[in-house]
Amino acid sequence: MNEPISGRKIDTVVFDFDGTLVDTNEAVLESWQYAARELLGNAFPYEKLTATLGEPIMRTVAYLFPDSDPERVVKTYREFHHANFEKMIKIFPGVTEMLDALSEGGYKLGLVTNRLRYTTEIGMEQFGLTKYFGAVVTVGEAPKDKPEPEHIWFALDKLGSRPERAMLVGDSQNDIIGGHRAGLVSVRVSWAVATDDSYGNKAAEPDYVIDSPSGLLAVLGELNG
After folding, report:
1. Which of 11, 77, 137, 179 would disulfide-bridge 155, Cβ 3.0–4.6 Å?
2. Angle of helix 213-224 relative to helix 95-104, nearest 10 degrees?
3. Where are the beta strands (DSSP E) in 54-164?
């Protein structure tokens, strides 16, 4: 593996995609509501849906549609999602400037998501994000997905990085739990729509919370002196 940048505690930042870099929340939530109307004849309460953000899709299917055929649910969800994804997503303000600063500062950047590669790449290309990342790991490409650590370790291996030199930035408790299990410093973004039910659950409590993308640069400055 590559040696860390001299004098730095953290030389690698691994990001989640949905709800962290790109606002995909409307696309995700409306896709579940479409599936609910088509298959169940009704919509879900908003809070029930936001509690599932960041989960692997089959876990969400089991929770929302326990008596339905999982394959049919996924097909219905993706029918709406793929048709509307590009026009319903937007990049969060300040993300591009943050990534520019990290890239210019010599940080190794990775992306780990429980989203399919197909739509991940659509979103990254739409907002010009592909150039920043030395490793992109999507659902099913590692032995286990988030919140299991293998997903994150897989990205670190691609980057030539070590857990003790890396940081995980995400919006959901699955991101934070995964980051802790993988041995990374964890940062949760305050613009998350995903439900924060980490209170009292040490595994889901982040090391830092940031209010804006520029806040990540401040955290790195603090850690790296």
Report:
1. 137
2. 30
3. 90-91, 108-112, 135-137
Centroid of chain to Cα 54: 7
Tens-place pLDDT, residues 49-94: 988 888 889 999 999 999 999 999 999 999 999 999 999 999 999 9
Query: Which backbone phi and psi does 217 adopt, to 5 degrees?
Result: -65, -35
**Torsion angle (degrees, nearest 10) of CA 5, 10, 16, 19:** -120
Pair type for strands 135-137 and 108-112: parallel
pTM of the predicted structure, to 2 decimals: 0.89
* 100 included as an active-site residue: no
Q: 187: part of which helix (H) or strand (E)?
A: strand 185-189
How far is Cα 88 from Cα 21, in angstroms, rounded to an integer? 14
* Domain architecture of the chain: domains with CATH: 12-24+90-224 (3.40.50.1000), 25-88 (1.10.150.240)
Q: How far apart are CA 76 and CA 124, in angstroms?
A: 24
The single residue of 11, 16, 145, 171 carrying the catalytic annotation is: 16
Tell me the β-bridge partners of 167: 13, 185
